[in-house]
Amino acid sequence: MEVGSEEEERQTVVVNKSELEEGNIDEISTASSAPIEREQLGRSKSGLHRCKTAPAMDMAAVLREMQAQAAAVAKDEDEDDDDDDDDDDDELMKKWKPADTVNQAAMLLTVYLILGVVVYYLNRDKFSGVETHPVVDALYFSIVTMCTIGYGDITPLTPSTKLFACVFVLVGFGFIDILLSGVLSYVLHLQERALLSDIRHPPNLLLFDLHKGRMRIRLKVALALSVVFLCIAVGSLFLFFFERLSFVDSLYLSALSVTTVGYGDRAFSTLSGRLFASIWLLVSTLAVARAFLYLVEARIDKRHRTLAKWVLQRDITPQDLFAANINNNNFIRKSEYVIYKLKEMGKIGEQDVSLICNQFNKLDPNNMGRITLPDLFQNHQ
Question: Which residues form the Potassium channel domain (predicted)?
Fold first, then answer.
């Protein structure tokens, strides 16, 4: 009986060993073979060694595994989040829309103008000038003051109204800046959307700069200046037909108003003229400010292109070699040469390089001069 049991146990060991080699570990259920199974598993785990001639691990497979793990973690976190958090994220994304900035600026401007109209209406006897309608005159005075035109046809008389005019024009600068920034951001957002919508189709090279991914600066300046001249033309036609001024006086007053000069010898005197001026002056002031911004941008862009062309065309000198030698050896690497040329072009500064180097050092804790997958795993833990 003992011999028979020993023979059965040997057969069980042989069967368990073959099943272990085939990977069917879960099918082993014999009670007498359980200790032997654990022993065989321990030996198989301890005996696994990578052959020296085996190929290196597949980098793409590792990256796919990392992406799968990250997607699984993100999925688990999304399932744990409440609906309220999603609503908060949506609200946060909506706050970054440029259109919202324009709406907020327009709302603040409306409140600002209403305040100016109310103050003028309650103290209209303390202002001098030709009256047409109290509310229209108040709005006209507020727009002219905020746009810093200063026709002089309506002026404050008492110390209190003069102090109000000082505060009103200073605060008006801030509202003009907010509104202008919002309009510019919205226009740039529309340009970006138009560019991204044409990715599938070849964009017009006359309109867009493919290398910079934006509208050409010369075209932007031309469009801005065309809007300014359009404002001058519209103002001249209105003054000629409705204010009954001569052609020269109409063009004269329109040009001085758009450029916010306002000598004061000519102004809007009718009810319809002041209603038109309340809207036209605000639009034309924003158009002129945007044109000046684009002109400055064009000058800066031209200066950068000239500097870059000079930097790339000039020959490197021994002094440049020593200046570009970051590692303090007898030669410079390609990366050192690129960094030195970018510094000369004004694209980056020493502080930018230091920040990038500090970030690289955080990803390279062993100071090996390179970033490996284990380093990334360690930093993501």
Answer: 108-186, 228-296
**Whole-number Å distance between alpha carbons of 15 and 30:** 11
Contact 128, 154 (CB under 8 A): yes
Max avg pLDDT among 170-174, 187-191, 237-241, 331-335: 237-241
Distance, in Å, from the CA atom of 247 to the CA atom of 236, rounded to the nearest integer, reads 8
Q: Amino acid identity of 95?
A: K
Alpha carbon distance 154, 269 (integer Å): 10
The amino acid at 94: K
208-209 and 127-128 as β-strands: parallel, antiparallel, unpaired?
Answer: unpaired
Q: Tell me which residue of 367, 221, 357 sits closest to 302, measured CA to CA.
A: 221
136, two tokens: 């229209």
**CA dihedral (5, 7, 11, 13) positive or negative:** positive
- Report the range out of 51-55, 70-74, 329-333 with the highest average pLDDT: 329-333
Q: Which residue, chain included where needed, has tokens 């380093």?
A: 375
Q: What is the pTM of this model?
A: 0.62
User: What is the three-state SS of the chain?
Assistant: CHHHHHHHHHHHHHHHHHHHHHCCHHHCCCHHHHHHHHHHHHHHHHCCCCCCCCCCCCHHHHHHHHHHHHHHHHHHHHHHCCHHHHHHHHHHHHHCCHHHHHHHHHHHHHHHHHHHHHHHHHCHHHEECCCCCHHHHHHHHHHHHHCCCCCCCCEECCHHHHHHHHHHHHHHHHHHHHHHHHHHHHHHHHHHHHHHHCCCCCCCCCCEECCCCEECHHHHHHHHHHHHHHHHHHHHHHHHHCCCCCHHHHHHHHHHHHCCCCCCCCCCCCHHHHHHHHHHHHHHHHHHHHHHHHHHHHHHHHHHHHHHHHHHHCCCCHHHHHHHCCCCCCCCCHHHHHHHHHHHHCCCCHHHHHHHHHHHHHHCCCCCCCCCHHHHHHHHC
For position 372, what pLDDT does the model report? 82
Count CB-CB contacts under 10 A for residue 142. 23
Q: Is 241 exposed, middle or buried (0-12, 13-18, 19+ CB in 10 A)?
A: exposed
